[in-house]
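Record type: monomer structure entry
Structure origin: computed from sequence
Chain ID: A
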Amino acid sequence: MAGAGVALAEDALGGTVNLPNLVRLKNRLDFGLALFMPNRGSRANTMAGIPAGGEPIPSRPLR
């Protein structure tokens, strides 16, 4: 169904992609809302890796 939104977009924003869609629209008002709040935290409590020779290297000093 690739391109289905371009071929038959039934909202007011469809005319931005395909101008002939504006002919089908009557008096219409559409609203939309998008919220983007990514979690930007991180924790470094895992081991950094195991070198080829042996013991793991901690990512922070051990107590």
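Annotation 1: The first strand starts at residue 47 and ends at 49.
Annotation 2: The helical segments are 4-7, 21-24.
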